[in-house]
């Protein structure tokens, strides 16, 4: 039984390692830190796989660990993780009529406040369901939705443009 | 194609370094061998044949012994008997051994091993046996952490890393302690070990003493016969507050209840504080959640 679960976690990790790497990279933005984040996430997942027993979804469990490890590396490196208000202040001022429609959305997403950023990445890059994201973020579904809408608005993306 | 699809394309195009699969493989092997060892250890208790792997283990143990000696006779080794907080007139915590060193493979090790001295009637050799246990734990932790770091280094070099890159990893191993409370009645000490490159092995042990009675304190001593029920109720009632404070969702359903083995320390107010491991009842971001039980 325990062996089954362990094997399942290992198989899942090996199969999805590139995804974990991309997600980690989207936070730390360099190869060495992204590798470190994934490695320590895998180490923790294998060490603590026994705690998964009550959890149906390996996927949300591991994504949560990867995100946590990435954030903790950002914190260690002294790069500020933007939260709520600070992040808002960072919003570039754009004069009406001078908006750059071609502005690189990828970069823009990385400037959003932390949890909004996370939701957008998980939804559109990793294509997880909002329900899964709510589990990973430990938020209720409505909070996730409202943060997602807030993020899209900041990115000037109409809700109809994307598949929510 | 809309802008979101462009962004996703950029995200998907992040190149995957070759090192990734090697490092994942390395973690899996490490976990595999840990599990094998655990299985073998339980098998060994039943059968006492000398298997091939046992010879291998013996060789590994010998290699480790050599290393331990090197550690203790290193020139950097400095034994200090610096006195730390004096606790009333009846007990004090001393630094029994303290050293800092850097190995030739760029591991930084710093160790502070505490020793508890008690001058009270009827304590017998309590302090002595506790000190032995603490010493054993600290040394074992430091040794194992060094072994782990060496394995990591080997894997790093085997997979194409250079010595310079390794040095930049700045591996630090730390064993230290903290006096949690020193009141007239109680002495509570936390002894901790950690490595900066992985938190999976971090270890904390608490030693709690009743100075009046001259013995170690249990939760039952502090909360009475119904300690488990009292602590469980208190923890469950505190979880919502902690969730509100941290914005994290605790895993109440994983909480299996307090037992006599549950880890705790005593705070200045004389109340037990129960400490859970990382990922035990809450996501990793919550760290090691602590619950003060006011009884």
Overall description:
The complex is a heterodimer of chains A (164) and B (295). By secondary structure, chain A is mainly alpha-helical. Chain A has 2 domains: 2-76, RNA polymerase sigma factor, region 2, helix turn helix motif (Rna Polymerase Sigma Factor, Chain: A); 84-161, Winged helix-like DNA-binding domain superfamily/Winged helix DNA-binding domain (Arc Repressor Mutant, subunit A, Orthogonal Bundle). Helices cover 67% and strands 0% of the residues of chain A. Chain A has 8 helices and no strands. Chain A has helices at 2-28, 31-47, 58-76, 84-90, 105-110, 114-125, 130-137, 141-154. Mean pLDDT of chain A is 80; it is low at 82-99. Chain B has helices at 3-12, 19-46, 52-73, 126-158, 163-168, 219-223, 227-246; strands spanning 83-87, 91-102, 107-118, 171-182, 186-195, 198-210, 215-216, 264-266, 272-275, 290-292. The longest helix of chain B is centred in the middle third of the chain and has 33 residues, at 126-158. Chain B is globular. Helices cover 42% and strands 26% of the residues of chain B. At the A-B interface, helix 1, helix 2, helix 3, helix 5 and helix 6 of A face helix 1, helix 2 and strand 6 of B.
Could you name the CATH class of the largest domain in chain A?
Answer: Mainly Alpha
Query: In CATH, what is the homologous superfamily of the largest domain in chain A?
Result: Winged helix-like DNA-binding domain superfamily/Winged helix DNA-binding domain
Query: What is the arithmetic mean of pLDDT of chain B?
Result: 76
User: What sort of overall outline of chain A do the alpha carbons produce when their principal axes are compared?
Assistant: globular
Biggest sheet of chain B, in brief? 7 strands, mixed
What is the CA-atom radius of gyration of chain B, in angstroms?
A: 23 Å
Q: Supply the number of helical segments of chain A.
A: 8
Rg of chain A: 17 Å
Low-pLDDT stretches of chain A: 82-99
Range of helix content of chain B: 40-55%
CATH-derived topology of the largest domain in chain A: Arc Repressor Mutant, subunit A
Largest interface, with counts of residues having CB < 8 Å to the other chain, equals:
A-B, 41 and 40 residues
Number of strands of chain A: 0
Strand content of chain A: under 5%
| Total DSSP E strands of chain B | 10
Number of domains of chain A: 2
At CATH level 2, the architecture of the largest domain in chain A is Orthogonal Bundle
CATH superfamily label of the largest domain in chain B = Fervidobacterium nodosum Rt17-B1 like
Q: Strand percentage of chain B, roughly?
A: 25-35%
Structural class of chain A: mainly alpha
């Amino acid at each position: 039984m325990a062996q089954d679960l362990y094997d399942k976690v290992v198989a899942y990790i090996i199969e999805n390692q590139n995804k974990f790497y991309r997600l980690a990279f989207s936070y730390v933005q360099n190869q060495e830190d992204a590798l470190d984040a994934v490695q320590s996430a895998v180490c923790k997942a294998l060490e603590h796989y026994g705690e998964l027993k009550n959890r149906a979804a390996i996927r949300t469990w591991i994504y949560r660990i990867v995100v946590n490890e990435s954030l903790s590396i950002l914190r260690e490196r002294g790069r500020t993780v933007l939260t709520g208000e600070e992040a808002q202040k960072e919003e570039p001022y754009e004069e009406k009529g001078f908006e750059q429609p071609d502005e690189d959305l990828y970069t823009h997403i990385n400037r959003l406040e932390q949890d909004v950023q996370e939701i957008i990445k998980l939804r559109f890059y990793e294509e997880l369901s909002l329900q899964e994201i709510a589990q990973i973020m430990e938020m209720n579904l409505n909070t996730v939705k409202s943060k997602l809408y807030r993020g899209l608005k900041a990115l000037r993306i109409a809700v109809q443009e994307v598949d929510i | 194609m809309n802008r979101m699809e462009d962004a996703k394309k950029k995200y998907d195009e992040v190149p995957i370094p070759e090192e990734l699969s090697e490092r994942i493989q390395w973690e899996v092997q490490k976990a595999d061998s840990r599990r094998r060892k655990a299985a073998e250890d339980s098998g060994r208790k039943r059968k006492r044949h000398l298997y091939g792997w046992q010879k291998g283990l013996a060789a590994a143990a010998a290699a480790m012994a050599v290393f331990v000696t090197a550690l203790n006779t290193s020139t950097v080794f400095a034994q200090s008997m610096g006195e730390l907080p004096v606790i009333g007139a009846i007990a004090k915590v001393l630094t029994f051994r303290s050293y800092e060193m850097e190995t030739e493979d760029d591991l930084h090790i710093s160790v502070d091993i505490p020793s508890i001295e008690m001058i009270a009637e009827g304590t017998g050799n309590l302090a002595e046996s506790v000190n032995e246990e603490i010493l054993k734990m600290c040394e074992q932790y430091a040794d194992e952490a060094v072994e782990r770091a060496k394995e990591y280094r080997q894997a790093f070099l085997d997979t194409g890393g250079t010595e310079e890159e390794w040095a930049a990893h700045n591996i630090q191993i730390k064993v230290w302690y903290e006096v949690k409370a020193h009141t007239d009645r109680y002495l509570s000490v936390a002894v901790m070990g950690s490595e900066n490159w992985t938190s999976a092995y971090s270890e904390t042990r608490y030693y709690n003493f009743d100075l009046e009675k001259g013995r170690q304190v249990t939760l039952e001593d502090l909360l009475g016969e119904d300690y488990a029920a009292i602590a469980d109720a208190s923890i469950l009632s505190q979880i919502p507050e902690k969730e509100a404070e941290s914005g994290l969702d605790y895993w109440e359903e994983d909480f299996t209840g307090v037992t006599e083995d549950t880890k705790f320390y005593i705070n200045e107010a004389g109340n037990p504080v129960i400490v859970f491991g990382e990922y035990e009842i809450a996501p990793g971001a919550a760290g090691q959640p602590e619950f003060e039980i006011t009884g």
